[in-house]
Amino acid sequence: MQVDGRSTVRRAAAVLAAVAAAGALAVTAAPGASAGDPRIVGGTPTTIDDFPATVIFNVNGAQHCAGTLVAKNKVLTAAHCTDGVEASQMEIIGGQTKFSDTSGEKAGVSDVWQNPEFTMDGMQHDNSVLTLDKDLSYTPATLVQSADDAAYKTGADVTVVGWGATSEGGDVSDTLLKVSVPVVDNASCAEKYTAAGSNYDKASMFCAGVPEGGKDSCQGDSGGPAYVDGKLAGIVSWGQGCARKDFPGVYTNVGNDYSTISSHIG
Ligand code: ARG
């Protein structure tokens, strides 16, 4: 399933579980997936200076997911990235534009809070807060604070960044990439995914993408940030394939869970 440029068995658990949860069909081709610009999918290179809260989330020393620094010693990531993983296996690295750099500050994880409403089957409330064993010096992100924030209005511009796959089933990117996609009407996204046999929870999720496909987050971007107007509105969660026509990316609605999440940030 996951084809990887830098190591053989990275991220397998998170990726496979997310695909299963999304009810993805066992397709070998990606109808509507862009064969064009090979970035995040359909994005462009950016730098960590533009998105300083973005962190690498390794497990057992290998690329697993991404996350966002939300306090000097707290990282918000996806629950599907922490499920079944011990804190002692986790490592957070900040400050790197290039995944392969070794210039960034590193921290271990001393505690994992995983949203108790999350399930791998349903992927609802896909958020976890990691407590780091030391402070990082990078500037934390500000969170959207309510589910009815303008951030989630249809058409709002969502910026997603990550080191994930640059095409469905393709290689991950060594350079941090960004892509901008509009918020998709929640009811029609729910309809599409429900018709495709997936669980879509309108309260704890939102969708972003372009109808023709070609721009999206993808495997390896999970847990990483989705910003609207400079605030953290979403967490990369799941999707049917990547960048497919009519199947936008699905993100955790951070505003919906703001009070729970913030109580674990302190
Ligand atoms: N679950 C994936 C991961 O673990 C992220 C998938 C995002 N998919 C999408 N089409 N936006 O990396």
Automatic annotation (TrEMBL):
The keyword Hydrolase applies. Residues 40-266 form the Peptidase S1 domain. It holds the Pfam family Trypsin. One of its GO terms (molecular function) is serine-type endopeptidase activity. Keywords: Disulfide bond, Hydrolase, Protease, Signal. The keyword Hydrolase applies. InterPro entries: Peptidase_S1, Peptidase_S1_PA, Peptidase_S1_PA_chymotrypsin, Peptidase_S1A, TAT_signal, Trypsin_dom, TRYPSIN_HIS. SMART domains: Tryp_SPc (SM00020). PANTHER family: FI18310P1-RELATED, POLYSERASE-RELATED. Belongs to the peptidase S1 family. This is Serine protease. It comes from Amycolatopsis iheyensis.
